[in-house]
Amino acid sequence: MKTLLLGILIMGLAISAKAVDKMKLEDQLHSLTDQFTAMQQNPSTAVPAEQLAQAKGIILLDRTRGAFMFGFHSGNGVALTRDNSGKWSAVGFVSSVGASLGAQIGGTKDFYVILLMTPGAVDQLRQSSMDFGAEASGTGGSTYAGAQASMKTTPSVLVYSARNGLYAGAAIKGGSISTDEDANQVYYGRPVSMDDILFSHQVEPTPATASLIAKIDQYSK
User: Fold this and answer.
1) Pairing state between β 136-138 and 129-130
2) Count of C-beta atoms within a 10 Å radius of residue 17
3) Cβ proximity of 63 and 73 under 8 Å
4) What secondary structure does DSSP assign to 11-41, as a single string?
5) DSSP letter assigned to residue 169
6) 181-188 and 2-18 helices cross at what angle (nearest 10)?
7) Which of 208, 23, 17 is nearest to 95 (CA)?
8) Sequence spans of domains, the chain
9) Residue 106, SS3?
10) In the predicted model, is pLDDT for residue 174 greater than 50?
């Protein structure tokens, strides 16, 4: 029964994803930018500028977790990569859907900043389905983030959360992050892969993306 309900929920998410239009995606991008800005303006949750400056890729993810008789979480976001010259790519849309059976009731909304610190971590964005759980390091909060920033060896993936200034890395392991092919096609007006967007630069950043990039650069200094 649980498996059937889970299948129905995931199918519903898939159908709703196809109904998205470019205006909704623009609104989503603006919302992600606003959430990132708010997170950076809060000293207890801000991602250290040093880590942002060193990141080779970034994912901003708005994620909802928890439902009825089993744990359920889903979310949408964007990914960007930075080339050797320091220039950010256009955004590639991603989605996050996953579940872990259990008696979790209700849901909480959270915002995540996932920094990809190595070429190997960034290369995972080429895949249609990505799972950063094995490499993710729980970070966040002024004290914990400061300790992380002072580490001699930086993990390949750093995860920050806007909720309470702390993110436990294990929470992201319940589901993978996947390419949202439908959203990318709608947003750019033609079929484009994550490789086309993030690595081959076959599309240019839109004004909404430029606003997000400006905020990332602002808080990298």
Assistant:
1) unpaired
2) 17
3) yes
4) HHHHHHHHT--HHHHHHHHHHHHHHHHHHHH
5) G
6) 10
7) 17
8) 2-218
9) coil
10) no
Residue 178, strand partner residues: 95, 129
Residues 6+ apart with CB under 8 A from 69: 2, 5, 103
Q: Mean pLDDT across the stretch 46-64? A: 91
Tokens of 25: 């995606």
- When pLDDT is averaged across residues 92-100 and rounded to a whole number, the result is 72
> Three-state DSSP class for 128?
coil
Asked if 65 and 72 count as a contact pair (C-beta separation under 8 A), the reply is yes
Q: How, if at all, do strands 70-81 and 92-100 pair?
A: antiparallel
Paired sense of beta strands 175-179 and 92-100, if any: antiparallel
> Cα separation of 138 and 147, whole Å?
12
Q: CA distances (Å), 200 to each of 17, 88, 93, 119, 194, in order?
A: 25, 12, 16, 15, 9
8 Å CB contact between 83 and 202: no
- Cα 54 to Cα 28, 149, 173, distances in angstroms: 26, 11, 24
Residue 152: pLDDT above 50?
no
pLDDT of residue 74: 66
Closest CA to 129 of 58, 178, 195: 178
- Pair 118, 134: CB distance under 8 Å: no
Instruction: Using the predicted structure, report yes or no on whether residue 188 has a pLDDT greater than 70.
Output: yes
Residue 43: is it exposed, middle or buried by C-beta count within 10 angstroms (0-12/13-18/19+)? exposed
Beta bridge partners of 79: 59, 92
